[in-house]
Design a protein that fits this description.
By secondary structure, the chain is mainly α. Helices cover about 70% and strands about 0% of the residues. The chain is flat. It starts with 17 loop residues before the first helix and ends in a 7-residue tail after the last helix. This is YlbF family regulator.
Length: about 130
């Protein structure tokens, strides 16, 4: 920083103090990611993922199920969502009898819900005025 240059809060001013604020936010972000990595949810997810990794056929079927599930949830134009969901569940009911698969899906859901709650806490806090 230049000598005798007064700090400002103008983010376009190279000599402003925004770097200190960003540094603090980035430090907090690092702590948050470390907290996620040390959480029970993340540990359970990784353990369940590792338990399935060795079985390529099981991984393939599980990923097919996950893709179809995601597409179904993402498709707002499905005429009868519950009929499609039942059809998919019937198609994969043998897969979901496997305790390793259910452990993975449960752990994945718990981890995703935790991340979703973190995202919602941030979104609810920050008013970005996106209604334009």
């Amino acid at each position: 920083m230049e000598k005798n240059k007064k700090k400002s809060n103008d983010i376009t001013d190279y000599h402003g103090s925004i770097g200190d604020v960003m540094s603090h936010v980035l430090q907090c972000t690092k702590r948050l990611t470390e907290a996620i990595q040390s959480s029970d949810e993340y540990r359970a997810y990784n353990e369940a993922k590792d338990a399935i990794k060795g079985n390529l056929e099981l991984c393939k079927r599980l990923n097919e199920y996950r893709i179809q599930n995601f597409k179904l949830q993402d498709n707002v134009e499905v005429e009868d969502y519950f009929a499609e969901l039942d059809k998919m569940e019937q198609q994969y009911k043998d897969l979901k009898k496997d305790p390793k698969v259910m452990a993975f899906l449960t752990a994945e859901l718990r981890l995703c819900k935790m991340i979703q709650e973190i995202n919602m806490a941030i979104v609810n806090l920050v008013d970005l005025e996106l209604e334009f």
